[in-house]
Amino acid sequence: MNLNMSYRRTEIFVALLWIITAAGAIGGAILVNPIINAPDYLSAVFPKSITITSGMFGWLINDIGIVFIGILMYPIIKKQSESMALGYLSMRMFESLLMIVGIFFAMLLIPLSREYINSGSVDVTLFQTIGSILKQAENWFLNLLQLVFLGIGGIILNSIFYRTKLVPRFISIFGFIGYALLLPAAVIGLFGILDPTPGGPGSILAVPVALWEIIIMPIWLFTKGFNIAGISNVG
Asked: At 107, is the secondary structure helix, strand, or coil?
């Protein structure tokens, strides 16, 4: 296969995956968050289990997609640094694993809600305690801890982009800054200082990354693609 054609296919697939993964995560949050964050979530989750499951499927699409982004980018990054290529792929895999664990905790709310409804609201405190633990675990794994690995992975990727000029440096600088902002976002979220999850006041820190992944990089990859000279001249 022609090398340029191979790179072109990678560019298109990566651009599509950034859009698809973002759509899965955003769609999942829109479907799930209003239900599990409602005051009456214990009585609402089970009757809306199809909606919850659909939202978690959206998150699962995101989790699978980000691993494939790492796999597709691996041979390109490897030409510059094998350790950084492994680092980026590892960050994407850890990020995906954490979110899958978060999905698991979210799905456990469905049988908990069912038992709560069937119990006739007897011993509400126990159900509320278990539900609170599950929601906290879901939030930590699905929304907060994964930001650390997403941020580190993005910093690695944009460092390579900057060094090789695979994309214009203004794009890699913007991406580097955006992903770096995710690290304090994770910290303030984990310590309960400010909520960086979708819709929370701290989510403004994730806006640059959202713009980079959903708009800037896909448009550039669709219209221009990687600077092949940057790939050819590294290593």
From this structure: helix
Residue-by-residue DSSP string for 31-60: HHHHHHTSTTHHHHTTTTHHHHHHHHHHHH
| Spatial distance between the Cα atoms of 167 and 228, rounded to a whole number of angstroms | 10
d(CA 59, CA 26): 8
SS3 (DSSP) at 188: helix
Rounded Cα distance, 134 and 102, in Å = 9
Q: Are 81 and 55 in contact (CB under 8 A)?
A: no
For residue 166, give its domain range: 3-232
Contact (CB, 8 A) for 189 and 147: yes
Decide if 11 contacts 218 (C-beta within 8 A). Answer: no
- Across the chain, what does the average pLDDT equal? 92
Dist CA 90 CA 87 (whole Å): 5
Question: What residue type is 32 in one-letter code?
Answer: V
- Taking the whole predicted model, whether its pTM rises above 0.90 is answered as yes
Write the pLDDT tens digit of every residue in 22-62.
999 999 999 999 999 999 999 999 999 999 999 999 999 99
Q: How far apart are CA 90 and CA 105, in angstroms?
A: 23
Residue pair 62/100 in contact (Cβ under 8 Å)? The answer is no
